[in-house]
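Escalated from tier 1: zinc ion holo job.
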Amino acid sequence: MEKEKYDIKYISELQEYWNDYNYALINEIYVGVAINLGMDPKDAYNLAKVNPNQLQKSFFKNTFNKFKNVFNHKVKKFRYDRPIFKGDGTPLTLNQWERFNKYISDFWTTHANPVAEDMTIKAHELGKQTTRFRQEKKDYDKMSLEHINEKQYKGDMPSGLIQAYSEYDFDNAEKKALNNQYSNVAMYVNQTDSTIQDAIRQQIITGIDNNKSPVEVASDLFWNVEKNENFVNKYTAQAMRRDWNRISSTEMASIYEAGILAPYESQAMESIKDPTKAQYFVFTGGSCQWCQAHQGSLTRLVPMDVVTSTANDSLKSMGIKDEHTDTALWIGKNNVGYKENKSVQEWRVTTPAHVHNVATMQPIDLDKEYYNDKTDKVERKLKKDKFIPTQVDYSQKSKEEKEWREPTNIGGGLVRKDGNIYEAVDSSIYNKKMDEWRENPSLPIPVNSANKNDMLIFKDAK
Ligand SMILES: [Zn+2]
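Tier 2 regenerated the structure:
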């Protein structure tokens, strides 16, 4: 998925900080491991900075300087005091690994958790600020994070949930949304913790198996430079950073969007009884093909309580008849687990709609405003012409489509099921195929031929 860029400065800066902070954190862990393996500290830091393929420099030092008035999170040195690679080729014992993993875990969580909480509350606050700026018809897209910190928060923008709750008013719906977002983020921080532990352990074990020297193992940790192949090893520092970047940008977008919607939640609740209070939002922004095709789609905000199934976003299904749209929007609506490719179109209209998405929901007053598809903005109506919203077709799946979703042999050893294409592969190349597929999801999904259960789709295929 292509990376999209925010055109609102303050939110793009928040994203920049979070990304670079964790970039620095992951670097520090990998550098500490490389030093432990015997690499000269200077060499280890250089290797972490410079991709031998692309000669990209890291910019996190500049980032920390740039935002020094807004954030003061530090990155300590990661220095484990016992050897994690024995020269004689004997692996560490289970207890020794556990002790090392705990060291990683403590380092990661004491750094990553406070930053994640800070990002959660700031992204939420920025969403609310955006709503205010829009209501006041302010020009806000060029405002910096530092400017907002100074002007709106007297230089003390909240950095924790408890601080925010004690200093500012949050209604229950807003607190609920914010707490949900924070527990999602905390889960991802935890997941990344175990991924890093796993990655370093795999790298070291592979190094021992291949009789590599500790310094060779150390250099493999950072970048994987396979010959003539666009194939990135999932255990390198580079891969960890890329994974975290994907997670943090998507999570931040979703917190920010929840912050935009939260102030309208109580009105959405009232609109269930009094339809004249209905609050509509238009999907705007994003630069990929999907986003461009969906810009201008109209949705109506509903309170989270009326959403009985998050898989169904039809207003009718919730007992709400609306002449303008049938697409419901609620805080936290997302497309996690929904596929979108040539043969399956499942993404629903929400923000973020996909990984690295920067599309945003703009409130619209259908009496006074209209969506201008030339500017991709909500603007005031000049004449009293009626706004005709773009409808999204979520009609029930037809009989033909149901048949099409059954396992079907499509030749060349490939089977299509539910719109996905599967290929049976020998277990010796399964991991490699999986990595290739993760890099390029338009390839057939590999199925390990040693796994009898998974292979059933090939048996069932017509
Ligand atoms: Zn997009």
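The pocket of zinc ion is lined by residues 4, 286, 288, 290-291, 354, 357, 359 (CB under 6 Å).
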